[in-house]
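Re-run with default settings, no changes from the original entry. Doing this only to confirm the output is reproducible before filing.
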Amino acid sequence: MNRSEVITSIERHFDTGDFLADLAGRVAFRTESQNPERLADLRAYLDLEMRPCLERLGFRCEVLPNPVATGGPFLFAERIEDPGLTTVFSYGHGDVIRGQEGKWRAGLDPWTLKCEGDRIYGRGTADNKGQHSINLAALAAVYQARGRLGFNLRILIETGEETGSPGLRELCEANRQRFAAEVLIASDGPRLAAARPTIFLGTRGALNFDLIVDLREGGHHSGNWGGLLRNPGIVLAHALASITDANGAIQVPQWRPSSLTPSVRRALDGLEVDAGAHGPAIDTDWGEPGLTPAERVYGWSSFEVLAFVTGNPDYPVNAIPPRASAHCQLRYVVGVDPTDIVPALRRHLASHGFPDISVVEARDGFFAATRLDPDHPWVHWTSDSIERTTGGKPAILPNLGGSLPNDIFADVLGLPTVWIPHSYAACSQHAPDEHLLASVARDALRIMTGVFWDLGEPRSKP
């Protein structure tokens, strides 16, 4: 069987419903890592779904305990055909966000796969069960066609990504030699647009923190004390307004990256951010002036206020509240020093007349920024493989707009990281009605089958 024939076979795998049957079985596992009662479900997903699937392809599998007591287990699988062949590392996560039963549209259930038109509904279809299921099906197609892969592959499936990947860093630090490879090729996140195959090479970092104004004990009647007491909500609003201008352009100098390099700008040149018919319209005048939308989300930092609380929003009373707080987030790219994000903010607030505002980092809100150079040989190799399958060049993003634990693979394991996402921005991945697009899934199966076939070809290493 040749390359064209194996791609035809994966198309049949989708068209006959076999892929959807496999995915339905995986969606049925209620692997909510945010729910401590689901630890047994997380282990069952590895033991009953992932392990048998990979062992049928000749992988040696081992469930590894989490080095952190609060984290779920990991599955490590490897197939080493010849030490002289290219060794690839891949990754996926079997855990999902909470199901949010009862909040889905009528007729939908988070744990039951349902197809309507181009949409395949179910929790985890986009994030990440559908994506690693596509990759596993493509691997199986290549293995069945060749009787081997033609390259070495190590796979790690975790069960805690939705809670910040507890234990993943410690596991990789303890297993650097065991997890060694020449490149990471994995799938998560959205394409640039549903119809545009995409490669991304890292992720923006994310740091969550609280800004707190705590002025006094208890509230005081606004009639008796209005005009005499500082209002913490107003103070905090003015402090927040100093962090960006009125159009969202960041005013903290240390948060403005120095890494919008010529190679990054070339990669982003001409790319259009498209959320599809059901996604939000882009505010063209928001954010850093002079940048394209693609440069703003993939090449620059963004500051967001995720929640703002003062007084009692549900039952307001005529009292000046004693306290106000805002939960905030900085998404940042390579070129921003993560160790100086909070200190720089404290200096900025103090210089603008707000020295008493507390800045408290969230315990579970940190991912470091990573980026592989768009001119790296593995980027060109992967792009060429995708173009050979689809007839068109994929979009190449220096980094995803969101965040993943990619810094662990890039910095701890020292791997060049190439991600091939199989979802799209309007997939509702952390909300009710999460879905995978059937058209994207079928296209992704073809792409990944081509990638895995090409990895096994003689002299395939870039």
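The chain is about 30% helix and 20% strand. The mean pLDDT is 95.
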